[in-house]
Design a protein that fits this description.
Helices cover about 35% and strands about 20% of the residues. By secondary structure, it is of the alpha+beta class. β3 and β4 form a beta hairpin. α3 packs parallel to α6.
Length: about 230
């Protein structure tokens, strides 16, 4: 669901989005809202805007509980003001901020109806993510063996996070646990989850390539230089 698109009632667009694999750009979600930004303040505004439209509900465990996972992606494109001849070197970086909804036991959360269905979907995608983490950690530990299969296609969550998990990337996981004795099992499983993620080792390289400049882009570069002179 696109949290930045508005439907006729003013809420997030509830139309189900399809995920596609592009041979050049990788995983794509067609028709997903993209916003051009130029400052940190704009990034925060868009993030807060989308977060307000997430589905929230109360359960026996939490007064306010996220009923889905959320992914917020920021793409940075760095390009020099001047270029050599007709070529310019472009560096592209992508940040994926993912807020995972916590796994839930039906008996503890006392979910019914739609809440129960949401919890089942949350747990299913978390299981798929855990399977990918296990496969990647095993591959890092057994480097002398052939690379094993990583089940990215088992859920939409793991497909969207494929580059963040097994690509040229640095990944940070923040685990949220509780000191309460009644949450012992959930906290222990969460820490085991994070410990396995620490075992992933990915080679990282600079995502930089050259692009050809067209006449219109030359005019933009020249216009920008004229403005600086003024």
């Amino acid at each position: 669901r696109d949290l930045l698109a508005l439907d006729q009632h003013g809420g997030g667009d509830r139309q189900s989005l399809e995920i596609q694999q592009d041979p050049v750009h990788g995983i794509l979600v067609p028709m997903l809202t993209e916003v051009d930004i130029v400052s940190q303040e704009q990034v925060e505004e868009v993030l807060v805007y989308g977060n307000k439209r997430r589905t929230m509900a109360s359960t026996a465990n939490n007064l306010v509980s996220s009923r889905s996972h959320a992914i917020f992606q920021i793409t940075l494109i760095q390009q020099p003001r001047t270029s050599i001849a007709h070529r310019s070197r472009v560096t592209i970086s992508k940040f994926s901020l993912c807020d995972l909804a916590g796994s839930e036991r039906g008996a503890a959360s006392d979910n019914r109806g739609m809440r129960h269905t949401e919890a089942a979907q949350i747990n299913r995608s978390l299981l798929a993510l855990g399977n990918c983490i296990n496969a990647l950690a095993d591959a890092a530990r057994n480097k002398h063996k052939a690379s094993g299969f990583v089940p990215y296609r088992d859920s939409k969550l793991t497909r969207l996070l494929k580059d963040s998990l097994g690509g040229s990337t640095y990944t940070v996981m923040i685990a949220n646990v509780s000191p309460a004795s009644k949450c012992y099992e959930e906290s222990t499983n969460t820490l085991k989850y994070a410990q396995r993620a620490r075992g992933i080792r990915n080679p990282v390289y600079k995502n930089s390539h050259e692009v050809e400049l067209h006449a219109a882009e030359y005019q933009q570069v020249i216009g920008g230089l004229h403005e600086e002179i003024k």
